[in-house]
From TrEMBL:
It is an enzyme of class 2 (transferase). The keyword Transferase applies. GO terms for molecular function: cystathionine gamma-synthase activity. This is Cystathionine gamma-synthase. PANTHER family: CYSTATHIONINE GAMMA-LYASE, TRANS-SULFURATION ENZYME FAMILY MEMBER. Signal peptide: none annotated. Pfam families: Cys_Met_Meta_PP (PF01053). Its cofactor is pyridoxal 5'-phosphate. InterPro entries: Cys/Met-Metab_PyrdxlP-dep_enz (IPR000277), Cys_met_metab_PP (IPR054542), PyrdxlP-dep_Trfase (IPR015424), PyrdxlP-dep_Trfase_major (IPR015421), PyrdxlP-dep_Trfase_small (IPR015422). Keywords: Pyridoxal phosphate, Transferase.
Length: 384
């Protein structure tokens, strides 16, 4: 048995899966293969299977193998952004006349993709409360091909019961697609609960340093993985080699970062729940959260994302965001630095007037891995 046949834990896979030392130089880190084309040894004589970097690139292959290993899937695929991954998946699994069930709480850009782009291609969707499995069952139609969920969801931190939803989707001949961006595979592996495809914005925790935009899909089944790969090449929204390398580097520390994000978030939640200016804290780690028991069953810890509602309404919430200093006011999430934002006016502005509209008094924080006392002091002063 070689060392690579030994059973491997998550952190070992994060550092090594798909990343053998470079056979030519022994470089322990996968090189950035910044190249578009590859010399052939005679027509069709490919060395290592590479012919053109839209189809495949060695740095991207390393990332894709690592993604598949971390999510426990058959095939990982890396894209130029989370939305590029979503678009490629949807146009692989849906055709005009098909129907998909989507959540009533999701990233605004995901909703925009369904509502403004896919409907123009003849795809129908229904919005359901995916945090209650029975509501999803009621929304299923004879032409439903997929159920799409985020858990925890963005920005309301709702929890979906993946095992229950897999049963409902599969019973109706549909796929279960899970956006695992908020949890990351370190905290939750949806395929183990029956998901067919896992979606990531690798821009977030996977990259982890706010220096790259990327997306990923992991298919549980090799056949579906092949179909998506065909569309990835046909549609071309691939991750470039440097971006793939940045995500690969970020993933090596995912486990330790997620541990710290989660423990810092718990302390932030403790402060917020006691604060008189906060009317509600949304965090699946709270025993009173409606999805707490399900989250405890399917997540290793509750993650670094926290949302809260500010007593005093929209302007008071905006003021909290404006006053924060160490919590940087900005979109996105999942980096080592803490971020704060007003979803209604920022990340979820595109959901205004839709069933996914978010409360106006909502503030979302991405709790980073800075010293916790500094984070708590900043929130105290921002709340005023
Ligand atoms: C949960 C979730 N899914 C998908 C996306 C889209 O990813 P990207 O911005 O990388 O296209 C985002 C972006 O914020 C997100 O938060």
């Amino acid at each position: 048995m070689t060392e690579h046949q030994l059973p491997q834990g998550f952190e070992t896979l994060a550092i090594h899966a798909g990343q053998e030392a470079d056979p030519q130089t022994g470089a322990v880190v996968t090189p950035i293969y910044q190249v578009s084309t590859y010399k052939q040894d005679g027509v069709g004589g490919l060395r290592g299977g590479y012919e053109y970097s839209r189809s495949a690139n060695p740095t991207r292959t390393a990332l894709e193998e690592c993604l598949a290993a971390l999510e426990g899937g058959a095939r990982g695929l890396a894209f130029a952004s989370g939305l590029a991954a979503e678009d490629t998946l949807l146009r692989t699994i849906l055709k005009p006349g098909d129907h998909i069930v989507i959540p009533n709480d999701a990233y605004g850009g995901t909703f925009r993709l369904f509502a403004k782009v896919l409907t123009r291609w003849g795809v129908e969707f229904s919005v359901a409360d995916t945090h209650h499995a029975e509501k999803v069952r009621e929304a299923m139609r004879p032409n439903t091909r997929a159920v799409w969920v985020e858990t925890p969801s963005n920005p309301l931190l709702g929890i979906a019961d993946l095992a229950a939803l897999a049963e409902i989707a599969h019973g109706a001949g549909a796929l279960l697609v899970v956006d695992n961006t908020f949890a990351s595979p370190y905290l939750q592996q949806p395929i183990a609960f029956g998901a067919d495809v896992v979606v990531h914005s690798t821009t977030k925790y996977m990259g982890g340093h706010s220096d790259v935009v990327g997306g990923a899909l992991v298919a549980a089944d090799a056949g579906l993985g092949e179909e998506i790969m065909y569309h990835q090449n046909a549609m071309g929204a691939v991750s470039g080699p440097f971006d793939a390398w940045l995500v690969l580097r970020g993933i090596k520390t995912l486990g330790v970062r997620m541990d710290r994000h989660s423990s810092n978030a718990e302390k932030v939640v403790e402060l917020l729940t006691k604060h008189p200016k906060v009317s509600q804290v949304l965090y699946p780690g709270l025993p009173g959260h409606p999805g707490h028991d399900v989250a405890a069953k399917q997540m290793k810890a509750f993650g670094g994302m926290v949302s809260f509602r500010v007593a005093g309404g929209e302007e008071a919430a905006v003021e909290v965001c404006n006053r924060a200093k160490l919590f940087t006011l900005g979109e996105s999430l999942g980096g080592v630095e803490s971020l704060i934002e007003h979803p209604g006016r920022m990340t979820h502005a595109s959901a205004a007037g839709s069933p996914l509209e978010v409360p106006a008094d909502l503030v979302r924080v991405s709790v980073g891995i800075e010293s916790i006392d500094d984070l708590l002091a900043d929130l105290e002063q921002a709340l005023g």
